[in-house]
Design a protein that fits this description.
This protein is an alpha+beta fold. Helices cover about 35% and strands about 25% of the residues. It contains nine helices and 14 strands. It binds coenzyme A.
Length: about 325
């Protein structure tokens, strides 16, 4: 019998934690740390148990804050976990259980315990290769090459046409799947904002969220515009937040369409301008916003924005851009 469709991450955290040891559950949205074993939209079957029941080479499902992550156990004493392709995790997190299978569409890949040494060796080999600066340079070049203009027709044909539009409350599931894979925003926040602000019909809508959807209703790009005070940051005006486009549809104008859709809505709601803060080394994003006429904000706003984020624990320098919506 095919496994039942799992509930959202937010609900799953509560369900998982109250599940007795030995019980199993299908879980979707366990992060991207097991890529390419685990990809966007895949589910994992978790056997509820504590860290004492896990060994090196097992895949642990862990809770970090309000996020679920599936990571390879690289050592139990001391307890250390790592992404399949990346470095080790910082300490912390609560172990919820062992991943015993991965499901992609109709395919189920069991992860039996004899598989452990192979997974451990694979993780160690990949992590070692990944730690070499040369590997990353090659990876970035291959990635940039793949996602550049030449592959656009192929990617366009594979994904099909995308509809870019404002989100309504019925889009919650698609949003949570996308967010589970690509955003570092709590699903509780997204759910609340969509239900109470972004997803409402006119004239009740406040702020807005936009998504790029394929013919099957899957989301491939997302961003929202809203007051920063919704996130408890002491900054005025409305800001574009969480702009992310899935790699397979990059350089197809999706971000440009998402931003245009959000700016139209912000203008309709009477906002005089829209702002964005961007990591100073994120050239793809800076160019995308620049192409839409965003210009550097006043130095004072840039200073206050960096200060607000520093106080919230972030250390990267941000460039603040703004676009006048009245012209
Ligand atoms: C930044 C990002 C949202 C751009 O999405 P996108 O859909 O590929 O952007 P668009 O296709 O609308 O690009 C618009 C223009 O921006 C520039 N641009 C976008 N990505 C670029 C890249 N990787 N390198 C150079 N220029 C780039 C180009 O001028 C592009 O126009 P062109 O393709 O006609 O030359 C996407 O790369 C992404 O999701 N990155 C990871 C998350 C992120 O950094 N988000 C921004 C947080 S502020």
């Amino acid at each position: 019998m095919p496994p039942r469709k799992p509930p959202s991450t937010e609900v799953l955290l509560d369900v998982l934690e109250s599940l007795p040891p030995g019980q199993r559950l299908w879980v979707r949205g366990a992060g991207r740390s097991l890529y390419p074993l685990l990809r966007s939209g895949d589910s994992v079957r978790v056997l509820r148990c504590g860290p004492g029941q896990l060994a090196r080479g097992d895949v642990a499902l862990m809770r970090r804050g309000r996020q679920l992550v599936a990571h390879v156990v690289v050592s139990t004493r001391p307890w250390r976990t790592a992404a399949l392709l990346g470095s080790e995790d910082p300490p912390g997190g609560v172990t919820l259980g062992r991943v015993v299978a991965v499901r992609r569409g109709q395919w189920v890949l069991p992860l039996p315990r004899p598989f452990r040494p192979a997974l451990w060796v694979t993780q160690q080999t990949l992590a070692l290769a990944w730690a070499r600066p040369g590997t990353r340079v090659v990876y970035r070049r291959v990635r940039d090459f793949f996602f550049s203009g030449w592959s656009r027709p192929l990617r366009r044909a594979l994904v099909g046409p995308l509809e870019v539009r404002l989100l309504h409350v019925d889009d919650l599931d698609a949003l949570l799947v996308f967010a589970g894979e690509r955003l570092v925003v709590s699903s509780g926040f997204l759910r609340r904002q969509l239900r109470e602000r972004w997803g409402l019909a006119e004239p009740h809508r406040r702020g807005a969220a936009a998504g790029a959807f394929d013919a099957q209703g899957r989301m491939h790009g997302f961003a929202w515009v809203d007051s920063y005070r919704q996130e408890a940051l002491p900054l005025d005006g409305v800001w574009v937040r969480s702009l992310v486009v899935a790699p397979q549809v990059r350089r197809m104008g999706v971000a440009t369409r998402l931003l245009t859709c959000l700016m139209d809505e912000a203008r309709r709601q009477g906002e005089p301008r829209v702002q964005a803060d961007i990591d100073d080394d994120n050239s793809a994003s800076l160019r995308t916003f620049g192409g839409l006429g965003f210009r550097p904000a006043a130095p004072e706003l840039t200073r206050r924005t960096n200060q607000a984020w520093d106080a919230a624990g972030r250390t990267k320098a941000l460039v603040v851009l703004e676009k006048d919506l009245t012209v």
